[in-house]
Every structure is written in C-alpha cells, then in structure tokens.
Amino acid sequence: MTLVFEWPQYTPEKTRYGQYIIDSYQKLHPNITVEPMFNTNPTEKLTATIAANSPPDVGWFGAGWPQLYQAFLPLDSFVQQTKVDSSKYFQKLWESCHWQSKLYTMPNGFTTTLMYFNKDLLTNVGAAAPTDTSTWDDIIASANKVLKPDKNLYGVALDMGSYYAELYYGGPFWNSDATKATISNPVATDLLQLYNDLDTRYKLVPSADVVKSYGANTEEMFFKGGLAFFAGGAWALEPVRTAAKFDWDIVPLPVRNVSGKDYQGTGMWTEEFFIEKDTKHQPEAWEFLQYVTGPELVSWAAQQGHIVPGRTDIANSPTFLQAFPQPKNIKAFFKAADLAVPTSVHPEATKLGTAIGNGVGLFLANPQKASAAEALAESNKQIQNVLDTFNAGKK
Q1: pTM above 0.85, yes or no
Q2: Which domains does the chain possess?
Q3: Tens of pLDDT along 350-386?
Q4: Cα separation of 147 and 25, whole Å?
Q5: Cα–Cα distance measured from residue 308 to residue 379, given in angstroms and rounded to the nearest whole number
Q6: pLDDT confidence of 162, banded at 50, 70, 90?
C-alpha cells in the first residue's frame, strides 16, 4: 500500500531530514511505499490538495496548524489505545497540539527565539559573556563595547519580522479561551519600545545596507562575525555551526525589568505531524506517526541537529546534549521552552498575525505618529475583531 506524505523542503537540511524519514520507514516496512508530497509551503499545499480532493494521508506542519484542524483526524483515541505517555513531552508543546481540548497533531520538535552571541567579540572588548539571567541592560552595555560602525561591527539584531517573540514577555496575545485580546499591556509596550530604542536610541542595530554587505540577512552577518548578539531560533544552529569561525553560544532572551518586576519571555514555534481525516489508511497512518514522533526517529533527528526534540527524555540525553560541541549551553532551549508562549494556536492564525502586524507596524514605521502603546492598542483592537468574528461564527 502507499502512504502519501506531505513534507516541506525549506532548506537543504530539511530536505535531507524528510528523505531519511521516507527511506528509513520503507526499510522497516517494505510492504509500504511512502510517496512524498514535497512543497515549500505546507499551508498552500494542503489547502490546494484538500480542495482538489487529493490530500496526503499524513504530513508535517509547523506553527499555525489549527488553520487546517478541520482537515485533520483527532488523535485522542489512538493515543489512549497505544498508551502514549504525554508526560514525556514538553508540556507547552503537547498543549499546543490541541484545539478545543482535542489532540489533532503529534509533536516531534520545537524552536524558540533566543539570543546567539559571539563570545570572541565580547572577550576582545572586555565584555562578559551573557548568562541565562542576564538583563537587557547587560546586553546593551556589552553591545556598546563591541559597536564600531566604521568597521561594520554592530551590537545586536533582533528577529522581529512576523515573529514578535519579544512581545511575549507580556504573555499570550489573547486569553485561554480565545475570547479576549491581551496584547496591549505595559510589558509588551515596554519591549516594543525597547526594540525600537536598540536602533534609534542606542544605534546598535545595523542598517539594511550594512547587513547586505555581509550577505543575505542578519543571521549571515552574525556567523560572518559582524554582530555581537543575534536573536534567532533553532533554524540558525546548522548555518552557524557550519560557518562561524569564532567561539559562540546561546542564552534565553534577556530579563527585562518593568515597573520593578522582572520578566522574561519568547515564542515557541512547534513542529508536529498529522493524519488527514479522510485517509483510507488510518491504522497505517497512525503507525507512521508513532515512528516519526517516537524515540528512534526523534533521537536520530536530534543527533543530526535537525530538531530540538519535543520529547524531554531525548532532549535531556547525551544523544542531543552531546551531539555537537556548540552551543555549549544547548539547554537554553529548555529554559526558553518554559518561558515561551506557543504561537499561532488558533484557526484564524493568519488573520491574527495580520492584526498584530497592522498595529505594531504603525509604530515601527513612524514612532512620532504612533507610540508603542497606541500601536499595541490598535493591534489589540484588530485581534479582538478577529476573535469576535470567529466566535460569532461558532454560535
């Protein structure tokens, strides 16, 4: 029999990972052919194939999977029958695979945004390497010591873009039952202002032209030695491991004091697998999911550097912790996971992302016209409109 397997090919390492899954599974199950449905955008691919009545049997997704939850088979009965132990997974990762108390996907890995740093650059200017409890004031002070614009050396670049990881210091962007927007709060406001201040006030952020002189993006600027600090996720591990010619490490995003209280946060982007609800091969599809999220495959993927494993037993084992010499503080991902808010866990994730960006963009485009507080108030208003419309449709 044949299982059609949806898999994205974002990067060369992602392509190798998917091919290994196919080859290794077929070797274990010679009676099954795994037919790849390769793509570069799972949302677009699944939407199109579902509409054409030609969806895959199984597949991979990332953050935002609830947009398609109605096409996925609930997995609770399979989990109960095969006695899957949910305590072996990072709690927030396991919870993020649910919508309205039903399990629709099986977790296999995750990433969080945290801080990469160039230890050699810091040492050369007499700045201490950051720790898991360093503050933003510590980072700014160290970045200032490195800053040499005449030599194209800069302090910090944050991966805001569509991720907004720093805004999660203020907690989730809506409440637990998705009825009330909560992004407009003093902590998120402070972090949004800080994001802008790093550039306009402290002058620590490279311009687009400077970044371009190093290559494609700030990640490349970091591994080529032009940045002291770079905020990114697990996707940067292989490029930095491969290209960096200096000593480097990672820590969670720094502590920020707001009104006398310390805060730390980030976003969690999940990796999970699903079964399409209309597959004619439910038992075989579940067996496939057990393999791709089970200890053998997850251990291999962790050892190869493809994922931060979602299983705590593998994450805390030498298989993952000693797979590579750098980063030494690989456990920073675990602390970040405890701090993190899983992102885009809502069927209207795309519209909600647009609502967030519409407000935040007002401030980033022109801080003189809209303050950080006003921008987040606009994001909050637009998020609330999306939630209200969605919830009204359920009644």
Answers
A1: yes
A2: 2-112+269-342 (3.40.190.10), 114-266+345-394 (3.40.190.10)
A3: 999 999 999 999 999 999 999 999 999 999 999 999 9
A4: 50
A5: 31
A6: very low
